[in-house]
Amino acid sequence: MDNFAAYQATAYSVRDRLIDNWNSTQQYHSSKDPKRVYYLSLEFLIGRTLDNALLNLNVKPNYQKALTDVGFRLEDFIHEEVDAALGNGGLGRLAACFMDSLATLDYPAWGYGIRYTYGIFQQKIVDGYQTEYPDYWLTFGNPWEIERLDVTYEVNFRGYVEKYTDDEGVDRYTWEGGEKVVAVAYDYPIPGFGTKNCINIRLWSSKPKREFDFAQFNEGNYDKSVEEQKAAENITSVLYPNDNHLVGKVLRLKQQFFFVCATLQDVIRRFKKAARPWSEFPEQVAIQLNDTHPTLGIVELQRILVDEENLSWDEAWDIVTKTYSYTNHTVLPEALEKWSVPLIQDLLPRHMMIIFDINLFFLQEVEKKFPNDRDKLRRMSIIQEGNPQYVRMAHLAAIGSHKVNGVAELHSELVRTTIFSDFVEFYGAEKFTNVTNGVTPRRWLHQANPWLSDLITQKLGGTQWLKDLSQLSKIKAYATDAAFQKAWMETKHKNKVRLAEYIKQTLGISVNTEALFDVQCKRLHEYKRQFMNILGVIHRYERLKSLSAAERQKIVPHVVIFSGKAAPGYYIAKLIIKLINNVAEVINQDPEISPYLQLIFIPNYSVSIAEILIPASDISQHISTAGTEASGTSNMKFVLNGGLILGTVDGANIEIGEEVGDENIFFFGTLTPQVEDIRHEQMYRSLTLEPRLEKVVHSIQNNNYGDSIIFEPLLATLRTDYYLLSKDFGPYLDSMDKVDVAFKDRAGWAKKSITAAASMGKFSSDRSIQEYALRIWNAKPVTVE
Ligand code: CGF
User: Fold this and answer.
1) What are the pLDDT digits (tens) for 328-363?
2) pLDDT given at position 508
3) pLDDT 10s digits, 727-740
4) DSSP string spanning 387-426?
5) Which UniProt keyword terms apply here (predicted)?
6) Shortest CA distance to 286 belongs to which of 314, 249, 323?
7) Alpha carbon nearest to ligand 1 atom 16, residue
8) What phi and psi, each to the nearest 5 degrees, are found at residue 47?
9) Of all protein residues, whose CA lies closest to atom 8 belonging to ligand 1?
């Protein structure tokens, strides 16, 4: 039997256990009928399942033993599993962490999403450039999903709307869809850690309503006979590869409606089992919108209640708004979704009517509260006027929800004071709240870093900390204990060796595992400033070149590692990847400098790569322009694994700083309130670059890192410098120098690393979920007996 077969056999055996727990959970919930939480997300970035399931079910040692008995080693084939990569980045991974926490904390919860045939594209680096390949993740089957041919719903698009008057003289509407497809459920069991609770992510796949058009076939139109079938299947074919950037494609809008339409039918079917009145719907159902992507669900529920269940508009709207809540993940203008009115009108004619009505009734209330303020009405309207008009999905989501939350303190404050400031004035501040993101310690420490997990478990005398991360703080007492420091730093070293082996295998480069590992891995985006990082690397390289051999000896050696994908259409982000790779070519082939500086771009960043990368880092960079990164979640994972942060005062970095203490984090850069003023100033003055930056730019222009013509558009971004690279460059380099000084003091560094990791209790996704449950969903755990 080869490794893949061994993987499959093991996976199917674990799946049986999952299904047992899953069945017991569903049966128990059916008998108790508690309030359910529904987490609606267009993305779930799950990664691999086998190791996670073995650990959560607490059967890993048993499986290891059983496998050894028949001549196999789990470690040899665990990598055979293909990542389930149905997400772009933080937002999708957050959804996956939340599922783990919901299961672990015994919530009767469901995730709903789309079963994309192709997940996020595979990235290869060819001649330094990113090239994209399809992610054929289902080719060899997927042991972790259960196809539910018994759970299907019809989804309609287009068609026409008819008006009639009901028996009470009320105007009513019916929508007869034109294009009809079917949604088929695929269930993905999610086991909690140390509990029987096993929840479900239900992913929808689109299928044609009719398999085949026989009329066309009989007439010899073979292409036409399968056209409809193909169009239906296309809906759930591919995940749109954009993060923090909107693309207004019809197919994406179709995905969004397809998803919420099937989901609501499923949710309502479950609600109706108990024959309760509609008024009890919000007591039984909480629906969380992960960003605005599922916002049409608000409109669809209103349509069902008014058009199909014949409730009055007001009764229906009351139910809708009590049911929904919305998480905002960004204030970047280019990321806020808006859909053209003609597009929605064509695809969903009845929904467009309902959106206009929601808007009308809403603006009437605004007018009552703030009479004669036309500008306010224009700003708050769901409809952005123009030709064409647009629907602002964030406004619709906020108006149709009882709570709106941001994902870190600073971000939530920006949500309240920028994009929703008028809404705060109208509704009051309580509707707009904060739930700081979190990450699951089960995957991001226990699974990804078994050496450190074992060390902590030994010290704390058990694994309880994995269910209550605040217990980590007890480790602080050992931060200066020499033996513990030694053991702690040994685990770090093992992780660096593991990563070095991976780099050797994939890129053929041997890296120095005694060097400081300096990592920036995340989506490529100008606001995240990987460009500033690579410019800093050039600066470091050229400074090393100018030093004598003796002087170089005093410098802390760095292995700088980048990893991340750029959206295929994001030209500047792709140029940054090219620049990193060109600079790597030069540095890594310079034998004089390689002992002190190496530069690696790890292709095809994924959850599985993050699991090797994160535990190995000494320093990770989270250097977004202040006010642009809503939260960040990898920052939490790095510190949890004993890595320190070099970062800006942005997103969740700030709260991490509050927990770990200023001496255990390296902050630098412009603060949020100054950013706009500086931009304004820069607009009216010709910008002179920071001298060290200027030198680096000249060096690129002198073709030291390949033909500089390629990089002109990238360098041109420094002229307006919207993301303040020039302003922050000096403080950035100075901060990096402080990192080096700190790293030289081995005991001091170990103390920082231990103290920081031990202070991360707050950043468990369990804490986030408990906050949602208490303050937003009003949902309670149910222990499956
Ligand atoms: O959501 C993000 C991420 N890129 O997916 N947003 N979106 N859209 C934010 O940019 C991150 O800062 C945030 O951590 C993440 C999850 O909330």
Assistant:
1) 999 999 999 999 999 999 999 999 999 999 999 999
2) 98
3) 999 999 999 999 99
4) SS-EEEHHHHHHHT-SEEEESSHHHHHHHHHTTTHHHHHH
5) Allosteric enzyme, Carbohydrate metabolism, Glycogen metabolism, Glycosyltransferase, Pyridoxal phosphate, Transferase
6) 323
7) 91
8) 80, -150
9) 244
DSSP three-state, residue 67: helix
Instruction: List the one residue out of 242, 203, 197 whose CA is nearest residue 784.
Output: 197
Q: Tell me, what's the ipTM?
A: 0.98
For ligand 1, atom 14, the nearest C-alpha belongs to 632
Domains of the chain: 33-48+83-330 (3.40.50.2000), 441-670+726-761 (3.40.50.2000)
Instruction: Identify the residue whose C-alpha is closest to ligand 1 atom 1.
Output: 91
pLDDT at 138: 97
Measured in residues, the chain has a length of 785
CA of 611 to the centre of ligand 1 (A): 19
Query: How far apart are the C-alpha atoms of 27 and 23, rounded to whole Å?
Result: 6
Ligand 1 atom closest to Cα of 633? 14
Catalytic residue annotation: 329, 522-523, 528, 633, 637
Q: What is the mean pLDDT of residues 475-498?
A: 98
Looking at ligand 1, which atom is closest to the CA of residue 91? 5
Q: Which of 127, 85, 98, 87 lies closest to 39, judged by CA?
A: 98
Residue 497, amino acid: V
> With bands split at pLDDT 50, 70 and 90, how would you rate the model's confidence at 212?
low
Residue with tokens 């999403």: 113
Q: What confidence tier does 686 reach under pLDDT thresholds 50, 70, 90?
A: confident
Three-state secondary structure call for residue 562: strand
Q: Do residues 233 and 86 touch, judged by C-beta distance below 8 A?
A: no
553 burial (CB, 10 Å; 0-12 / 13-18 / 19+) is exposed
Phi, psi torsion values for 600, nearest 5 degrees: -130, 135
- Tens of pLDDT, residue by residue over 114-139, are 999 999 999 999 999 999 999 999 99
pLDDT band at 244 (very low <50, low <70, confident <90, very high): confident
Among the listed residues 82, 190, 185, 187, the one whose alpha carbon sits nearest the alpha carbon of residue 140: 82
| Mean pLDDT of all residues in 438-454 | 98
Residue 562 CA, ligand 1 centroid: distance in Å:
19
> Cα of 770 to ligand 1 centre, how many Å?
20
Q: What is the pTM of this model?
A: 0.98
Q: Residues with Cβ within 6 A of ligand 1? A: 89-91, 94, 243-244, 291, 329-330, 335, 407, 437, 629-633, 651
Nearest CA to ligand 1 atom 11: 632
Contact between 610 and 726 (Cβ < 8 Å): no
CB 536 within 8 Å of CB 619? no
Query: For residue 711, how far is its CA from the centre of ligand 1 (angstroms)?
Result: 28
Query: For residue 388, is the peptide bond before it cis, meaning its omega torsion is within 30 degrees of 0?
Result: yes
Q: Report the separation in Å between the CA atom of 438 and the middle of ligand 1, taken as the mean of its atom positions.
A: 12
In this prediction, residue 228 has a pLDDT band, given cuts at 50, 70 and 90, of: confident
CA of residue 521 to ligand 1 center, whole Å:
14
**Residue nearest to ligand 1 atom 6, measured at CA:** 329
Q: Quote the CA–CA distance of 143 and 135 in Å, as a whole number.
A: 17
pLDDT at 211: 65
Cα separation of 305 and 320, whole Å? 9
Q: Mean pLDDT, the chain, as a whole number? A: 97
The pair phi, psi for residue 161, each rounded to 5°, is: -115, 135
Best mutation site among 98, 244, 293, 522 for ligand 1 pocket (most ligand atoms within 8 Å of CB): 244
Q: Quote the pLDDT of residue 775.
A: 98
Q: Is 514 exposed, middle or buried (0-12, 13-18, 19+ CB in 10 A)?
A: exposed
